[in-house]
Amino acid sequence: MCQFIETIRVKDGRIFNLTYHEERMNRTRKEVWGKTDWLKITDVWSPEELPLECSKLRFVYDEAGIHDLTCTPYTRKKILSLRLVYDNNITYPYKSVDRSMLNELKKQQGDCDEILIIRDNHLTDTSYTNVALYDGQQWFTPSTPLLPGTMRQSLLDKGILQERKILVSDIPQYQQISLFNAMMELGEVVLPVKNIL
């Protein structure tokens, strides 16, 4: 049976980007299983149970519903360098429990801290984040992500990010790259593009 996950930032007793996570979960359930009943995260985890420190609320869901909820303190990984890895066949349209394709690519990481996945010469994502590149005035996120993340969509909706086709050959046109996901905000992890190897 296919299983999918949501990972959500919790801080000060608040669930961040709740609407975006619920929309993605319910869209996945509809596209994969044809389910149209709307699941709500707050039906299985009440705000009174949420910690004050920055934590990762994680759960698995499938055709039957939400289960295996955990909430653990979050510590951000230190990322100082990225290795370009190429795979023209990789797909990861849903946030799946099965990360085997991503794990295979991680084996090419070498002495870098993380990978930046290239598909058909286009930038996509790292193994666990979306990315944005800064040209000195504006942040741009690739229009070809493996997984359109909840934070990514939120930033696009707010106009903080612009979407753009970004090729490997375009990287030198930018100054910085930022990694972000539900747990890390844009600008929290920023590297100079020279650290993309």
The number of helices is 3
Q: What is the average per-residue confidence, as pLDDT, rounded to a whole number?
A: 92
Helix content: 10-25%
Instruction: State the CATH superfamily name of the largest domain.
Output: D-amino Acid Aminotransferase, subunit A, domain 2
End-to-end separation: 38 Å
Q: Might you state the CATH topology name of the largest domain?
A: D-amino Acid Aminotransferase, Chain A, domain 2
Q: Please state the overall shape, judged from the principal axes of the Cα atoms.
A: globular
**Can you tell me the residue ranges where pLDDT is under 50 for at least 5 consecutive residues?**
none
What does this structure look like?
- It is a single chain.
- With 197 residues, the protein is of the alpha+beta class.
- It has two domains: 4-73, Aminotransferase class 4, branched-chain amino acid transferase, N-terminal domain (D-amino Acid Aminotransferase, Chain A, domain 1); 82-195, Alpha-Beta Barrel (D-amino Acid Aminotransferase, Chain A, domain 2).
- The chain has three helices and twelve strands.
- It has helices at residues 18-33, 100-106, 150-157; strands at residues 4-11, 14-15, 55-62, 65-73, 82-86, 114-119, 122-126, 130-134, 139-142, 161-164, 176-180, 189-192.
- The chain has a five-stranded mixed sheet, covered by helices on one side.
- Strand 8 (130-134) and strand 9 (139-142) form a beta hairpin.
- The longest helix has 16 residues, at 18-33.
- It is globular and about 45 Å long.
- It starts with a strand and ends in a 5-residue tail after the last strand.
- The relative contact order is 0.16.
- It comes from Prevotella histicola F0411.
- InterPro entries: Aminotrans_IV, Aminotransferase-like, BCAT-like_C, BCAT-like_N.
- Pfam families: Aminotran_4.
- One of its GO terms (molecular function) is catalytic activity.
